[in-house]
Amino acid sequence: MTQQPEIVIDAAPAPDEKATSPFKEFWKRFGKRKIAVAAGIFLLLMYVTAFLAPFILPFGPDSFDYMNTLQTPSALHWAGTDEFGRDIFARLLNGAKLSMFIGFTSVSVGAVIGVLAGLFAGYYGGWLDACTMRVSDVLFAFPGMLLAIGIVAILGPGLTNVIVAVAIFSVPAFARIVRSGTLAHKESTYVEAARAAGASDFIIMFRHILPGVLGAVIVYFTMRIGTSIITATSLSFLGLGVEPSTAEWGAMLSTGRDYMMAGEWHLTLFPGLAIFITVLSFNILGDGLHDALDPKLDRE
Amino acid sequence: MKHLKNAVLGATMLAGAFGTVHAAQAADLSIALNQIIQGLNPQDSNYNVDYSVANGIYERLIAFDGDMKLVPQLATSWEGSDDAKTFTLHLRKGVKFQDGTDFNAEAVKFNLDRLADASLNLKKHSLFKLVESVETPDEYTVVIHLSKPFGAMINTLAHPSVVMESPAAIKKYGKDIAKHPVGTGPFKFQEWVPGEKMVVVKNENYWDSEWPKVDKVTFYPVAENGTRVSMLMSDEVQFVPILPAELMKRVSESDKYEVLEKPGISVWVMAMNMMRKEFKDIRVREAFNLAIDKKAFTQVVYGGHAIVPDSPIAPATQFHATQTPALTTDVAKAKELMKEAGYGDGFSINLWARNNSTEVRMLQFIKQQLSQINVKVDIVPLEGATRAEKLFGSNVTPENAEFDTVIGGWSPSTGDADWHLRPVYSTEGWIPNMYNEAFYSNPVVDKAINDALESADPAKRAEAYDIAQKQIWKDKPVVWLAIENALAGRKKGLTGAFPMPDGTMQYAHAAFEE
After folding, report:
1. Between chains, do B368 and A64 touch, taking CB under 8 Å as contact?
2. What number of H helices and E strands is found in chain A?
3. Which residue range(s) make up the domain with A207?
4. CATH of the domain at B354
5. β-strand B306-307 against B478-484: which pairing, if any?
6. Do B361 and A255 touch (CB under 8 A)?
């Protein structure tokens, strides 16, 4: 007898159909943030070009030419050539691909772990909450960059380890955001209703609470990609990241630095600009998403 | 700058007053070093930077001039017995240490006995293992007896670490002599703030009344290449003894500064670990040598300020003999040899080096070049101390060494072929003993190196070293990459401060011209 109401709850997909409307609303609101849209379009264009680069550019990122080293920008080499005669523009585009890969993978890994940890900690509370949050506090106590350097120092340099390092130091931030969101949603009437209707913890957490905190997670995710690109390029700049011959922005800056005093400005200017504009774009995009996703802003 | 101006002004006024004194005779000199000073006891140091600053405070029995030719310093003449086991030195008279102690045969014996004493664990003890006894027949004569013939003894005495330290000061300070150096040189130690600066001042009682001509020399350790050059251009320092090639143009463009360039004796090689089956095959080693474009290497890594080796040792090293055929680049032939050896599809290797920017550039260059013969290179830049530990750590054996190939430069600071061929190419030199990183072993080479040591006759030694060089050149245990030039930046008008071919520098005879 008592099982009957459960079926009613589960068979109520009505709210899901309305979900298309918040989505449309989001686009409407996001569209008003012109700078954020521009940043999004820039990033999209950059990555599309980066993926098409091998088919449209006459040079690969690693093709060397010792007869044409350290050339300043020209019609042939748009951003000049480096000390090995490699085309800097081709390397920049390859660096874009890499930065995207590192940024997305590391933040995704960090987000998944952080979201799960925060969700469980916030929902169950007690010792699980205490443990999770104390571990986060410990990780928070280190400045992000220092933590990443420490992790790479233990694991050794390399692309994979950079991703691991950046992922680890993204975890606590996601955990905190999701935990506080979970705490708030846990007390809401609809969760209480679901619980009263006999929904399992799993259903409550993932079906009722998680969608509520996802907005904040998406915003933070976007901004975090910017930060993680900076961290990854910094590690490479310090020689702790990718292998030095890799066409990666931080590594390019690092080797270009030797030639800065010698007047070869283009070796450092372009990778520096690439990092600057990309990270800025991610942050602006994140800001735009924040405004578009925050329901409170509507009433103001 | 202010000091300099005042000093110049003062000197000019003096010149005006007395008429005969050269203007700008007295002034202060500042030098920017590329590394931190580790200690001021060269006998217990492996660092060029320590030898460099010590060059003004201490003196050696025999020294090198700017072209690595032997010149008398505290010994005025010397001779070796035919069996290369007994060496006699005649000392300079009228020399005193800066603390007033007399410099005589006793003082020399005291220093040499210390170096030969294994229990003291001095870092440069290895150079003096063969010393059996030191005799002092009179106050200004020293006779060194060796347990085995060692034809390179005179050059070993000229190694920048073999300085004469005041016996009284050593007794007083013990190990702390590294913080309170007392020698016979033209400059007295004044102050050392580790990591920040070191100051030496004029030794008024120097035995050569002509020198020194500057009152004070200050050393600043500045690791960043660009900063050192900026300091030179802003007149904070007047001499930068180690100048990276890529910054040379900036110094030479200005008419107030000059670049000093000198052929060096550091030979850079990529050693191939011959414990690996691929590198046991001479065809593979030959292919590697053919695939890597040495001319391009000197351009890319040193901006052209280096030469392509024509022997395992540098032309400025004693007993160098030009080898044939000269190194060439022939990728097609290299591919063929690899195919013959059964590696037409190539193989993967790791390649180690230090993580400074010059060596990282070398790593990238070699990776690019070897990709032409399908060899996939995994480059491993290592922090200096880590590299030393993994290469020369006491637990390293030929079987467990982790590297396939490794980049390194070797400069024999004795200026003699022995201290290049023996540590780098002899069987007794296998790491971690010395520096034979290829685990190369050829009885012909070992015998020639030993034959050369058993004689003090230059003709006989030259003959033996010729055999060794020829055989090594044929066996190709390493890829010879480049011999870098010693480059330094200096303010125009400064003389007597210059870089040495072995990577150290001299400033004892520094002077400012008008």
Report:
1. yes
2. 14, 0
3. 78-293
4. 3.10.105.10
5. antiparallel
6. yes
